[in-house]
Structure formats: structure tokens, C-alpha cells
Amino acid sequence: MKKWSINIIEDGYFLVNEYQNFRFDKHIARTMLEKIQFPIIILDTEFFNHSHDEGEYEDKLYSEDQKDVVYVIQYSFAKSLKEIAYRDNTKSIKSIYIKRGHNDKTYNFQEQYSKMVTSFLSMCRNKEIKTIICAGASNDIKIINKWINDYKHLFARKSLNMAFYNKEKKELNANFFDIYDILENAFSFSNTTSTGEEFYNANNLPSGKQADNMIALTSCKKFYDWFESINIKAIKNEDEEIRNLCIAAYTFYSTPFEARMNFEVYRNMISVIRKVVVHCYNDVLKILIFLGFIYEFVYLPYEKNSYIKK
């Protein structure tokens, strides 16, 4: 995804290098993009659940009613795709996360969680957000839909524009747009790396919609792995697996006051939360870069597309 690096083979068919090419149907993509209602919030969350609990403490932060518990939210607002394509997206990403002071005897996780959810939903209400955009939305949809129904008292005087009433489920639901729909339906990629090797086991990926001998990529990670390049100055360094960070985060938030966490341990745990924030920041930034990429290929002529080699 380097600027000025992609060659046009023919309309909708592009050459990245000697071995890699992709097809893109801008008409399919445009049809999908036109479903987005603005303004939008681009979102990524991190959560923990029972799988991150190593059983050290008896009191649990999760429950049958709340199996996945969000503790970090990274987000970015936008009024249009054009805005995303032309602004400095690194300066547009904000975060909300659950805070805990060192040996704070007033700390109550559920109270902090409620404050975080209230802050997020109030912000979306006040900004009149109409669509949530994310990558792989299944968990986020479930969690945020629950928030909207549990906290619907927040919308008694001013409605939440991104929510609608689901008649089948008889509940409020958020209006989501998943970028994977565009990735899987509007793109087809050669199953090759930049050195001509097989990129992925084709049996484990769907065929491309534009050509049977090509593959569809089913995640942002695969998309960026295929291109093998992204603006490394914008993406922050990550040196730990997110699962391990979530395990540590669960321990941090679930440790009772009576355990008296020493300051060195506390400082290390704060570092863990910051690393999770960085992970979510990178995921939001990748969505923003992807949306900017899509905007240029859908709405701009090739001579004005900054990814096309001149």
C-alpha cells in the first residue's frame, strides 16, 4: 500500500509488483459505502472473559449476563470518507479505558465500567453518530447492543441516532458497518507474495468474487500482510501478544484491595494497559487507512489516486 506504487492493468485490475495483482469492483464497493450514514465512529475494543481468568481470585469481573467485558475503547469520528482520506488520522484517534489507582480502596470495577460505558454512549449521542464502523464486528455488535439496552435511560431526552428498534429481537440495536463486507465482496487477490510464493493455503480462504482463480481476504491482518507494507511511521510498535496482555489486564482489574499490590507491580500493570491501548490504536488506524484507500479507488479518477503509479 505504498503511495504511487500500483500499476493499472485494465479498469478494475491492478498490478502491485511482478507477482502480485488484485481486482477491485468499485461499483460493488460504492453500493456498500452508500449504506453508511454519517457522521460515523470508527471503533475497536479490547475485552476479557473467563478464558483470561487464571483463577487467582474468587470474585469474577464477568458473568453469564456479561461474558465479554470491555476495558479499552479506541475510536475516531468522521463526517465523511473524504475527510478520512485527506486528514492526518494519527491525530484523530482517542481512547477511553477503565482506570485504577494504586491501592485505591474506593476502586470498584463495576462502577468504573459503568462510567466508561456511560461516557461512550453519551459521546455518541451528543455527536449524533449514526453508524459504527469496525473490522470483524461480531463481538462488538453483541457488546454494544447490550450497552444500548442496559443504558437506554441515557436517551430519554435526546435519542441515540445510531440505534434502531429491532422488531424481531424486540430490542434496540446499533447500526454497524463491517469493512470485511467490502474486503470479501469487492476485492479479489492473487494468492502470491511479493516473491512469488504462495501467500495462504487457498483451501482455507474463499475464492475471490471477481475471479475464481483468486482469493478473498477475510481480515484486516491478511489485507495488510498481503500488501506487506503500511506506513510504519504511523503504526506504533507492538511487542507482546494481545491475549497475554488481556490475561494480565484481567489480573490487574480483578486484584482485590486487600491484596495490596506493590507499586512496582502496579506500574507494570499500567504499562500493560498502555500496550493494549496501543494495540487498539493500531487497529483503528488500519481501518482508517483502509477506508482512505477505498475512497480513492471508488471516488477518484486514476490520475488523482495517490496509490496509482504515474
Automatic annotation (TrEMBL):
<protein>
    <submittedName>
        <fullName>Uncharacterized protein</fullName>
    </submittedName>
</protein>
<keyword id="KW-0472">Membrane</keyword>
<keyword id="KW-0812">Transmembrane</keyword>
<keyword id="KW-1133">Transmembrane helix</keyword>
<feature type="transmembrane region" description="Helical">
    <location>
        <begin position="284"/>
        <end position="302"/>
    </location>
</feature>
